[in-house]
Specification:
about 500 residues, mainly alpha, Growth Hormone, Chain: A, 2 domains, 21 helices
């Protein structure tokens, strides 16, 4: 069997679960009409999937170390397929929302185990190539979702954005059973139920608060308090347990902690602002969902090409140079998009999108490889789950913070009375009233987007500074590509494990 078939099986599941984060967006109008429901109800179709995925990926990663990474990955594929079928056949919005939650659980099981499976399936230069291809897939997936969703919704109906997952899942399961070997922690620990419960509560409360925004709301404030308290409980539990879900000694490895922060900030800097740029492309410039997706496609292509090339050199270059350099390019791409004017067309953002894709493609693979190298192989699921959890939380954080910045820009130019309709996708209706309102709406979006991308660039800059100043040089005795030298505390803990 060719050596790259395990990577094909792993990337198939990864692409599918990441596309499903954004594939639903363009189908919401058709769903609302077919299910006789409101957009506010359908918002949960998007949010619950992201909420469950972000809250459970670390928990499931620790279970994968104990029960087997291939087993957890295949179970995730099966659960994802069943939930996708239920979504596609949903008779009402309640069933659809519930099925999306289950789909998020299946996605968490896949996402938590993919990096560990790659690390165990390949070594040396092949591992670097594999992480490069996987990074390319993760970088391209987000921007591919709206295109795939638009095509399926337009030509065969919204239910097929879920049903199309079935043949992909079946093929991925069959291939995984045939070509991926099972790996697990050779000294399995007891399931850390208190740690799982407290982290899940913390991650779910924080993600929901970030999705809601509305920082003055009592519910949002309460959610943030719950998240903080649950996180304190989690830290206390993990300190005293002999078999923690997340070995806190990993966090004493300065490089690993920096990688987690960089992963979160990369997601916020590179991808979160695309939500508001898509709103400008469709509601102000009048592009269709498919056309708007095609505008963002160069970002995906750049990420795909650069990440694939990085995989060939990752094993012989300092990871902090790749990661930090990628983040600097992301900053340049965000700033290039922070120059939209009232008269700008869609072509104005293409150079910036290409830079963002190239920067993300340069950074994602070494981020993943470095996280895998931070601890012993039996903790691979734990390390991979931690990085993926931080990436998902970083994306939710970016959406929330940049959403507030974007709305602030709209309000500054158009006033609160018009900012609501403009931010709610009704710019076309506002612009049709008069030439003056047309110009005002365009100027408001230009100001909002320019400020939003400037703040996104700030996220990337902070991450780049952290990587260049705090990440340690690679250790010559680590076997994985992208390895960085462990801190003494982390190394001591690992030897006890």
């Amino acid at each position: 069997m060719p050596k790259w078939w395990p990577l094909v099986a792993i990337c198939a599941g990864t692409l599918m679960l990441l596309i499903d984060i954004t594939i639903v967006n363009v189908a919401l109008p058709d769903m609302a009409r077919a299910l006789h429901t409101t957009f506010s109800d359908l918002q949960w179709v998007i949010d619950l999937y992201a909420l469950v995925l972000g809250a459970l990926v670390l928990t499931v990663g620790s279970l994968a170390d104990r029960f087997g990474r291939r087993r957890v990955y295949i179970l995730g594929l099966g659960l994802f397929a069943v939930a996708s079928l239920t979504c596609g056949l949903s008779p009402n919005v309640g069933v659809l929302i519930a099925a999306r939650g289950v789909q998020g659980l299946g996605a968490a099981a896949m996402f938590a185990s993919t990096m560990a499976l790659i690390s165990s399936s390949y070594s040396g230069r092949d591992r670097g190539v594999a992480f490069g291809v996987w990074g390319a897939v993760t970088g391209a997936a987000g921007a591919t979702g709206p295109i795939v969703g638009g095509l399926l919704t337009t030509h065969v109906g919204w239910r097929w954005i879920f049903l199309v997952n079935l043949p992909v899942s079946v093929c991925a399961v069959a291939l995984s059973l045939a070509v991926i070997r099972e790996t697990r922690d050779p000294r399995p620990r007891r399931v850390d139920l208190p740690g799982m419960a407290s982290f899940t509560v913390a991650a779910a409360a924080l993600t929901y608060a970030l999705i809601r925004g509305d920082w003055a709301s009592p519910l949002t404030i309460a959610l943030l308090i719950v998240a903080a308290l649950a996180l304190l409980v989690f830290a206390g539990v993990e300190r005293v347990r002999r078999d923690p879900m997340l070995d806190l000694a990993l966090l004493r490895n300065r490089s690993f902690t920096v990688i987690l922060a960089a992963g979160a900030l990369l997601s916020a800097a590179a991808w979160a602002a695309l939500t508001y740029e898509s709103l400008w492309l469709q509601s102000v410039l009048g592009l269709s969902a498919i056309s708007a997706g095609l505008v963002v496609l160069p970002c995906s292509v750049a990420a795909l090409l650069v990440s694939a090339m990085v995989g060939r050199v990752i094993h012989r270059m300092q990871p902090r140079l790749l990661i930090g350099g990628g983040l600097v390019i992301v900053v340049a791409g965000a700033l290039a998009q922070a120059s939209i004017s009232a008269s700008s067309g869609w072509a104005a953002v293409i150079p910036g999108l290409v830079l963002v894709g190239a920067g993300a493609g340069l950074a994602v693979a070494p981020l993943s490889a470095t996280a895998m190298a931070a601890g012993p192989g039996e903790r691979a699921g734990m390390a991979g789950g931690a990085l993926n959890a931080f990436r998902q939380l970083g994306y939710a954080f970016g959406i929330a913070i940049l959403g507030g910045v974007f709305r602030g820009g709209l309000t500054h130019v158009a006033g609160p009375a018009l900012a609501g309709p403009l931010g709610g996708g009704q710019a076309g209706e506002v612009m049709s009233r008069s030439d003056a309102l047309d110009h005002l709406a365009r100027q408001a979006f230009a100001t909002g987007l320019d400020t939003t991308f400037t703040v996104a660039a700030g996220f990337g800059l902070v991450a780049a500074i952290l990587v260049f100043t705090l990440a340690r040089r690679p250790s010559a005795d680590r076997g994985a590509p992208g390895a960085m030298a462990p801190e003494p505390a982390a190394a001591t803990s690992s030897s006890r494990s």
